[in-house]
Amino acid sequence: MTQDPVVSVVIATNRDSPFLAEAIASVVAQTYSPWELIVVDNGVPDPAPLHRLVAAIPRSRVVHVPPPVTVSLARNAGVAASEGALVVFLDDDDVWHPERLERQVRALAAKPEAPASYCGGWHLDAEGRTIEPAWPAAPATAAEMLSRRKRMPHICGAMMIRRLAFAESGGFSPELTMMEDFELALRLLQRGDFACVPDALVGYRRHDRNATGTGLENARVRRDALDGILSRHRWAARVRGDALTARLLEEHLVRERRRAAAEAAAAALWSARRLRLGDVVRECVWGMRRSPAGFGWGLIERLVRR
Predict the structure, then answer these.
(1) N or C: which end of the chain has fewer CB within 10 A?
(2) What is the pTM of this model?
């Protein structure tokens, strides 16, 4: 009889998260039992409660990585300290459906050539109430995702990755402090199609301590990060002579720039109404340089809505 693979669950945290106990409880409640939990402490202010919490959980331990380190390095350290054939990541404020591990393990068993699987999920607030919108997962080929014709996995926590594929892809890029999950997914997709579990299995919590904010400055940093990651991967594909991947990433970059330029147009109008002229100029310059058509359509759409 083939033994069920162990899933290594990695949580990286550098804060006293009020949601960590709930996140860990959702791991303990899984219907799939062959798992281990690695909690990476990369700067928790008071680690004693963390150690007490984890000590009460079977097959679990804390790994300390002295700060300052990026979340990418912390997660890589967690994987290095683990042993499972499959790896999955959980943020310290998110939760899982009880059948999350079981369904994704089953999906990977049915598709042994897939480097990873992904699932859908829902949003919840600080009190644990479900809020809109949900984020679905739909089957798509690697080519469709690399070109952005179909949606990529929504967040890092939605993926379950084979340890071998994670290692051969190089893990998370250690220098990245945001969009590191997107960048890793790009490299994994170049290894083959993912297995899809369309069910909502991951709960992503929105609250005032989220690392990923929605303010104007954060939006600028995120779009610059996306633009830089896609441009670098497109360049790398061209250098190694992989014309197909370079073409797919070029499509992705064009689509992403069009979307981001429309977002910049909306931000420019928002800033103009508040007489934030510096922001107006920055948004206009970014949008017009990356995608004049996208910026123009973004302006038209916003003005029509008014």
Answers:
(1) N
(2) 0.92
